[in-house]
Design goal:
Strand 7, helix 13 (247-257) and strand 8 form a beta-alpha-beta unit. The protein is elongated and about 95 Å long. The longest helix has 18 residues, at 357-374. The model has no long low-confidence stretch (mean pLDDT 91). The chain has 18 helices and ten strands. The chain folds into three domains: 5-78, no CATH class; 84-174; 200-374, Dna Topoisomerase Vi A Subunit, Chain: A, domain 2, CATH 3.40.1360.10. It is α/β, with parallel strands linked by helices.
Length: 375
């Protein structure tokens, strides 16, 4: 559309920009504010009256003053306007799909905002309704249900929008806070998590009830335990268990001590299967990990969640160890030894378990004897 040259006046551009929002929202009137002297002067012939400060305008009247629709002028000079009415309708449609099944469900999802951020929100809502129609049902894997409904076996994985919507529908509008709680909600309607693709590395576990783990411990063989194993085996053990962060440390213990000592390896941040195992061991847990920011974060988390006792995670142990790579990442606190974080920040180097594995191998037997004597 060709506009008269006077509408292209740079002094009027702030006016057209301020009018975008009111036009997108469908307002009938608006107030133009913060106009410069040049803009007020250029606006005077447009409005047909003096402009001395902020000014209220009736949008419909501007069509006549401009000799053409105001929307066309603003879009031509500043770019296409958003159709907010259509956007609101698009956001409402997925919620309407849920509300047709359960109004409380729709209200909870609306409050969460989980669908408002999705380009495919309507499809997610349709899939959520289809999933919920199958629940509760005969036991099946979550991946099976997801694949059958959506064609994507991972659509109901933790963190996916569809899982968040469905969980709110089967848990009174609330998204469970932890992975264990989410698994329990799914299980209550017959949906089981994958129980064989993840595992936790162990060594020397001798369950009180006996069984294959005892045989592996006698041979000194490391064993990977899956959630499937934890569901079918008694894993409570006698005596202390050493929890380490790195698989190579557990392997070094196997080579040096065989299966003499019970150990669990988190392999970095503990996976849920590791958390479940530690909760079921029913025995004192000692923890050693890397003395870097991630390592002390893991230690703090395990103290809070599993009641572990830090072992050799002290200022003295840190300063006695050889320095390694520079500390990187966000500094963390060390509540079990408040001075440790400060000393780490000042020294500025990480101490990884592999650097001190020889001293761990030498010191743990003495520590075990001390723990058993005290226990």
């Amino acid at each position: 559309m060709s506009l008269p040259a006077w509408l292209h006046d740079a002094a009027l551009l702030p006016v057209w920009q301020q009018l975008r929002g009111p036009l997108e929202r469908g307002n009938r009137t608006t107030r133009l504010t913060g106009l410069s002297r040049e803009t007020r002067h250029a606006l005077r012939p447009v409005l047909g009256r003096p402009v001395t400060g902020d000014v209220r305008v009736v949008l419909g009247e501007l069509d006549e003053r401009l000799g053409r629709p105001l929307v066309e002028v603003v879009e031509s000079l500043t770019g296409p306007l958003r159709d907010r009415t259509a956007e609101r309708a698009a956001r409402a449609e997925p919620l309407a799909i849920l509300a047709a099944v359960d109004q409380d469900w729709a209200a909870a999802v609306r409050s969460s905002g989980v669908l408002s951020r999705l380009a495919d929100a309507e499809q997610v809502a349709q899939h959520a309704v289809a999933v919920r129609a199958h629940l509760p049902g005969a036991p099946r894997l979550r991946t099976q249900l997801a694949a059958a409904i959506t064609g994507d076996a991972h659509a109901l994985d933790d963190g996916r929008p569809l899982a968040a919507v469905v969980l709110r529908g089967i848990n009174a509008g609330v998204l469970p806070a932890t992975a264990a709680e989410r698994r329990a909600v799914w299980a209550s309607v017959g949906v089981q998590a994958d129980s064989v693709s993840t595992s936790v590395l162990t060594l020397g576990l001798r369950p009180r009830a006996g069984g294959p783990l005892v045989d592996a411990a006698e041979r000194g063989d490391p064993v990977h335990l899956t959630p499937w194993d934890l569901q079918r085996r008694e894993v409570r053990v006698e005596g202390p268990v050493l929890v380490v962060e790195n698989p190579s440390v557990l392997e070094a213990f196997a080579l040096c001590h065989g299966g003499r000592f019970a150990m669990v390896c988190t392999a970095g941040w503990p996976a849920q299967v590791a958390v479940d195992l530690l909760a079921r061991l029913d025995t004192p847990l000692s923890y050693h990990g890397d003395l870097d920011w991630r390592g002390v974060e893991i230690c703090s988390w395990l103290i809070e969640r599993q009641g572990v006792r830090p072992w050799r995670m002290t200022v003295e142990a840190y300063l006695q160890a050889p320095g390694g790579e520079p500390l990187t990442g966000r500094p963390a606190v060390t509540p079990w030894e408040p001075g440790l974080a400060q000393v780490m920040a000042e020294r500025g180097v990480a101490v990884h378990e592999e650097q001190i594995v020889e001293s761990l191998l030498a010191d743990w037997p003495t520590c075990v004897e001390r723990l058993r004597s005290a226990g």
